[in-house]
Design brief:
Strands 1-6 form a two-stranded antiparallel ribbon. It has a two-stranded antiparallel ribbon with strand order 2-3. The chain contains seven helices and eight strands, in the order αβββαββαααβββαα. By secondary structure, the chain is an alpha+beta fold. The protein is globular, with a radius of gyration of 17 Å. It is 41% helix and 23% strand.
Length: 151
């Protein structure tokens, strides 16, 4: 019996650790750490370079309650001219979580650009799950998102 209880405790601890970044609703319209959006990554680079690129302190802009960092002045200018075009959907919260009715932090490497929109996810594994039914998940996320912010 002790072995089962020990395994249950270990499994429970692992589950809690894996979901420690989850929240029921977004307190802010943009996921940020210390006020910096999407962990300091350049949102424009996902479109122009097709990969996550770290932003540079000093090349930044404020938008929607967060500070956004960029890898170049050109990317900053593009974002300032059209932030809705480059900002991740659902404020940079995990797209899969939003599709299920809650919010979670994101990993900048777990991304998808689909139909000209950037989606971030909690982890690469969650991104693969999200992509398994991407159209349905986007529809659900679009429906859920307005009710998740500012509650």
């Amino acid at each position: 019996m002790a072995i089962i209880n020990r395994r249950a405790v270990i499994c429970g601890a692992l589950v809690l650790a894996s979901f420690s970044g989850l929240a029921v609703a977004a307190e802010n319209p943009v996921y940020s750490s210390g006020g910096i959006a999407i962990n300091g990554y350049d949102p424009v680079a996902y479109f122009t370079q097709g990969k996550p690129v770290a932003g540079i302190a000093g090349i930044e802009a404020a938008w929607n309650g967060a500070t956004w960092l960029f890898s170049s002045e050109a990317n900053k200018a593009a974002f300032v001219a059209a932030p809705e075009k480059y900002a991740p959907q659902y404020g940079g919260y995990c797209a899969y979580a939003v599709s299920k009715g809650y919010t979670a932090k994101t990993d900048p490497a777990a991304f998808t650009v689909r139909s000209g929109k950037l989606y971030l996810n909690y982890s690469p594994a969650v991104a693969q799950t999200w992509l398994g039914a991407v159209d349905a998940n986007i529809a659900a996320g679009d429906a859920n998102w307005p009710g998740l912010i500012g509650r």
